[in-house]
Amino acid sequence: MAGVHDISSKPSHHGKSEIAVLKRKQLSENQMHLMAKALADPRRYEMLRQIGAKNSAVPSAVPCTDVHDCQPVSAATLSHHIKQLEMAGLITIIRQCKFANLVLQRNIFQANLDHLEKILPQT
Amino acid sequence: MAGVHDISSKPSHHGKSEIAVLKRKQLSENQMHLMAKALADPRRYEMLRQIGAKNSAVPSAVPCTDVHDCQPVSAATLSHHIKQLEMAGLITIIRQCKFANLVLQRNIFQANLDHLEKILPQT
DNA sequence: CCTTCAATTCGATAACCATCTGATTGATGA
DNA sequence: TCATCAATCAGATGGTTATCGAATTGAAGG
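ok -> structure tokens follow
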């Protein structure tokens, strides 16, 4: 039932660049949707804030265990949320043997915000 | 289970202005959360786009029926989504007897985006 | 080798929510 | 007055997902 009311129709004469633009647009729409879903959960929102917070020794790489210490959930649940954040492109995971370190992808985050602003025409 | 891991604790010596700031902060956090949830549903996202789209006769007031024509859902479902968008502060409803007209609240929308950007420190 | 510990995976459960149908309200016009 | 139509409400249902415990993997350290 998703996409039933698409714009579609307009079958022909796309130049290659037009198609590329469409694909990129759809990609960012999808990214947007993933980010919105990610931020819609209070726990993930909090986690993302922590990961993005400027603090401590290493700039911009937060140990997974630090995040766990701040969130009263099981390791399984935490892992689940981290996967969602990663799939949304909002964080990357740097693995050092046993440990996972989380990095906020500010460029993606910002790109999605910029994309959202364009909902407002003639700002 | 929501809010279990709050910042809280720190019982004393708040100046009045400090409290006001806290309240405002919490308000915008709540607004943020409502907006994220609103945008996380593809249908609501599409509706908001349409309401925000610059078009047609009246600038910035879209008849509810126009939105319904673009969304293959029942009137009840549409009403539900409109309520969510309104509760998130993203639209206001102007009623003219039988009809409802929807207006995107660009200032609220923009304010939430600005608030979100602050997740990224030292941009 | 065995233990420990961080992280992931699996299956189950409960809560949430988008959606529907049907009933209701309130305004319009014949 | 009655039929119509936009919008909302009430209740039910199905799908999605946040959460858990238990089992698994993989890397260190004794």
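Residues 29 and 113 of chain B are 12 Å apart (CA to CA).
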